[in-house]
Amino acid sequence: MSAPKTDISLYTSGTPNGQKISITLEELGIKYETTHVDISKSTQKEDWYLKINPNGRIPAIIDRTPSPEGKSHEKRVFEGQAIMLYLCQKYDEDSKISFPFDTEKYWEVMEWMTWMQSGIGPMQGQANHFFRYAPQKVEYAIQRYQTETKRLYKVLEDRLAEQKGINKTAAGTKASTAGGDEGSGNGDGPWVVGDRYTIADIACFSWVNWAEWAGVDVAGFPEVKKWVDRINAREAVKRGLDVPEPFKMKEMMKTKEGEEEYTQHHSSWVMKGQKKDQETHK
Question: Is residue 179's pLDDT more than 50?
Answer without folding.
Answer: no
